[in-house]
Amino acid sequence: VWPDLGDPADIDYALVWMPEPGVLANLPALKAIFNLGAGVDHLLADPSLPKVPLARTVDPDMAMRMSEYVVFHVLLHHRQHLLYAAQQRRQQWQGHPQPAASEVRVGVMGLGSLGADAARKLSLLGFATAGWSRSEKSLAGIDCFHGTDGLKPFLNRTDILVVLLPATDRTKGIIDARLLSSLAQDGVLGGPVLINAGRGALQVEADIEAALDSGTLKAASLDVFEEEPLPPSSPLWHHPNVVVTPHNAADSGALPLCRGILEQIRTFESSGILRHLVDRQRGY
Ligand code: NDP
Ligand code: OXD
Asked: How far, in Å, from the CA of 238 to the mean position of ligand 1?
């Protein structure tokens, strides 16, 4: 267990989460790298990353936890919980009209192992659910958009935007003023809501703050940030319409993840096949 690696030449496989840049380059016998998470942006940022196969985590336990986070935060905004919590603090007994889930249009950016699972569960709850991905998709009950041409129509019909994209050269900074102003302004919630559990590098926090202040954005749930931990000086900590969580939307136990990786190593040793390989060119 790092930093006590023994003889580096004895190490065939590395199981890593955000290793220090350069650590893996010092393992001369390495056959494959397993990322103990779904996102590999931090690994690909290391120019000395060995050119061995790199597999990421795709795991039902992680998908279940991420969908819990997404469903919880969609419901929190849909059921106006921030408003009722503020009223409770004032001991104010007052109901507000409650739209049906079917009147609320949720859009999930990223329809991979996590986004597709969350979209399915939201659709089961009755939300009018759509998704956006790089390549064309067909998912039962989900209105699927893709590519650059599909982005604007997808955003224009979206009241609650859920972001589950990887951070790549093409997606970094995608949640900016332009994107936020493209979200539906005519929805039953009285303004669009952003939920980002993908990566902090996807969002321009100054644009999110400005959109919240101008009313272009009604509320946000953010699990990831440009800088983590979120600095004490960030206004997001105190914004009444923002929910901050510490990048733990899909915290999985190490054990279920390691079981999956053990299975991967067995298959790789016997057949040379590895699943969930990262395409380094694409960045995810
Ligand atoms: P996947 O690789 O399975 O899916 C990624 C999705 O994003 C795919 O649908 C892909 O499209 C889409 N996508 C990628 N680039 C683009 C683009 N340029 N334009 C449109 N769509 C694009 O990833 P996962 O679902 O497993 O994970 C998603 C991300 O969630 C991770 O990369 C990580 O950053 C984040 N994460 C956050 C966690 C947390 O605790 N907050 C925990 C786990 C993950 P296509 O299907 O066409 O390839
Ligand atoms: C991941 C994460 O990518 O935890 O798995 O963010």
From this structure: 29
pLDDT digits (tens, 9 = 90+) for 179-213: 999 999 999 999 999 999 999 999 999 999 999 99
What interhelical angle do 254-271 and 60-78 show, nearest 10? 140
- What pLDDT digit, counting tens, does each position of 166-179 carry? 999 999 999 999 99
* Measured distance CA(263)–CA(92) in Å, rounded: 55
User: Which amino acid residue places its CA nearest to atom 31 of ligand 1?
Assistant: 39
CA distance 242 to 235: 10
Beta bridge partners, 69, equal none
Compute, in angstroms, the gap from residue 257 CA to the centroid of ligand 1: 18
Mean pLDDT, all residues of the chain: 97
CA dihedral in degrees (142, 146, 149, 155; nearest 10)? 50
238 is catalytic: no
| pLDDT at residue 240 tops 80 | yes
Q: What is the dihedral of CA 37, 24, 21, 203, to 10 degrees?
A: -20
* Ligand 1 atom 3, closest CA: 112
**241-257 tens-digit pLDDT:** 999 999 999 998 778 88
The residue whose CA is least distant from atom 5 of ligand 2 is 37
Strand (E) positions, 197-283? Answer: 219-222, 242-244
| pTM of full prediction above 0.70 | yes
| Distance between CA atoms of residues 166 and 258, nearest Å | 22
Indicate whether residue 260 lines ligand 2 (CB < 6 A): no
Q: Catalytic residue at 199?
A: yes
For residue 176, the CA-to-ligand 1 centroid distance in Å is 18
Per the rule left: phi > 0, alpha: psi between -120 and 50, beta: everything else, 64 is: alpha
